């Protein structure tokens, strides 16, 4: 069993440099790559003692799905960049570990193959393409394959400028494709040019940057699946989301890959939880690397967290086995934090379990 850090080092060594840069990189000055981590580190836990922690139970429920711990895998494009089995291996691992798996619309394996390998809950992430017929097709296929929710990413009307990808002229290699979306619509993702990311160019061509809150009604008419918005960072937008009938929010700054100099997701969490007031599920992603990070998110009112890059590190290291190990490491650490915090159930984590930065009692 390796530590998460060791999986990161192993992935960096194995992967071609442009792929590593695509996974690890951020937007603009890359200021947000460290911001989320620093925000989590500033939050400190307030343990209670002499609580019966002889049995700690990390299990929970999220939008009706049973999870072994409040943990999932965030949507990430093209898992085959990390391992030939791609999302099929990730799905198998998530199932084994009892974690949620959110599949990117730009997955490199078919929704049907992923669903066949999964034994746990799947959500499907969507970017709003100009070609709405392709969205409808994906949504119907996901529903038929047993996916349980749709996650609309709302922090990326376009893929932001990412200096590493631009410098590498990064393009998706020819053997790997977003197989769930029509060929012609994905073509730009494969044509690299010096000094420009093909993914960023593709997004400017194909994403509909004109959508507004009003368009959510269309999505909710197309499907009866619950809709989750990913990338919400303010109480105002959380309130609007609830008013527009969403079932969940992912509080996220996209792993530092979208708006540079932005507030970090952990810093926004309490404001959003307060605005939502129990009316929809709240998930946190970005920089989750320790069991204690899960505990901090729960104390601030999140229902669960998702990890992004660590899943790709595990996948690059040893396929499904590596991903399952990454998820087990985090779950094991979280179970120990439960014992040491005096919080033997997920419901036992409360706001009083953390000290926030700037607080006089820190
Ligand atoms: C390589 C990579 C690809 C990603 N692709 C997507 C995507 O297709 N859709 C999406 O909503 N977010 C995408 N994200 C963002 C993740 O869902 C998530 O917000 C972020 O990675 C979480 O931070 P972490 O990697 O620090 O755990 C991607 C992130 C990475 C690193
Ligand atoms: O969302 C992302 O961060 C991302 O990297 C991506 C990858 C492929 C297509 C669109 C976005």
Automatic annotation (TrEMBL):
Q: What is this protein called?
A: Alpha-hydroxy-acid oxidizing enzyme
The record, for Gene3D superfamilies, names:
Aldolase class I
Record keywords: Flavoprotein, FMN, Oxidoreductase
Q: Which family does it belong to?
A: Belongs to the FMN-dependent alpha-hydroxy acid dehydrogenase family.
Q: Known Pfam families for this protein?
A: FMN_dh (PF01070)
Q: Which cofactor does it need?
A: FMN
The UniProt record lists the FMN hydroxy acid dehydrogenase domain at 1-359
What positions belong to coiled-coil segments? none
The UniProt record lists the keyword Oxidoreductase: yes
Q: Write down the PANTHER family for this protein, in alphabetical order.
A: 2-HYDROXYACID OXIDASE 1, S -2-HYDROXY-ACID OXIDASE-RELATED
